[in-house]
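Morning, I've got a small favour to ask if you have a moment. I owe you a coffee for this, so here goes:

…
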Amino acid sequence: MMFRCYYHFAESKNPKAVQIVHGSVIEVVWTLIPAFILIIIAVPSFALLYSADELIEPALTLKVVGHQWYWS
């Protein structure tokens, strides 16, 4: 890998230094596409999350107390 870097970034081949590394466009693209996919997945899940948070009057309530070695 060191020889490959030396070959591609040698001063004799490229005497003027460039501030932007090659491939910056593809880096932006492969960052934004997964971000948009996650947003597309997240939006419907918010509706499901908020609908599951509705309080409904329960028909039966259980009180369970857990002790260190037994349940009561």
